[in-house]
Amino acid sequence: MQKDAVITLALNYEYKDLKVFLNSLNATGFDGVVFLIVNNRITPPLEAFRFSIEQVIIKGLKVDSIKYKLSIRELFTSFSRRRTSISIKDALSGSNFSDDEVLLKFARTYHCQLGRYAIYLLILQKNQFRKVFLTDSRDVFFQSNPFDNCQKGLHVFQENITQCIKDRWYNNQWVKLSTSYLNYLRIRNKGIFCSGTILGDHESTISFLKTFLLSVPENNLPFDIKGIDQGLFNVLIHTNKIQQPHIHSKQEHVLTLSALSKTDYSFDEDFIYNANGYKSAVVHQYDRCEDLVKFIVNKTESQKSF
What highest taxon heads this organism's lineage (predicted)? Predict the structure, then answer.
């Protein structure tokens, strides 16, 4: 029977940074595979879990990000990087995404939050899984197995349903940099989906990753801006470039907290709940909420490894 896989970027992290992530996932009974994309091997304890851990060591990924704003400077920068974008697009298309060196070059050309998608694809093309969860790590807390009750297809998770792209400054800038101004005008009143938590079956996830990777050079995205992957992710969703994703807009599976107020979630001595009182399988960006940090740290301290 095929296993499920969780894949996450964990550059410059130590075990202590991943303790909440790993311990809480272990407590759900998950027994698949966790891939940690790292630039240096993380030392033990990484073996005392129900699931297996594979450390994928990739050197040369960009971690530093530039400050940015849309300006005349960006127009000149956009022009100067176009030749590289065309070269990357041709290499991806010409190799049919099957050349490891092409994928690694992509991963090292862009900021690591964009580059990680090439490594996701590299991992999935060398393995076969039932379902896959592409996720952030340091600020993720699991309350139940993320793969339970998820049907086939790609699952995307909306942030605060009362806010749209134009309402959040960073998301607004990321989207503007990821598409034409005409496209931006068409989607600026649409909801915001988080690129830090994406779930799907193996085939749907690979299909999404190929679409995403090719769209990066097609849209001539900047090489070194942290977070811009979320801009492109939202463009692809709202322009129907992703094949019929399952839209989760009520925080019922992934509770993404950065854009929520304290009235949008609650917790007791056992679990954290969304605004409707439903226990979400995954709690993301909990470190933005001081009242939850202590609860989650204490909770995971008590969760013993298997």
Answer: Bacteria
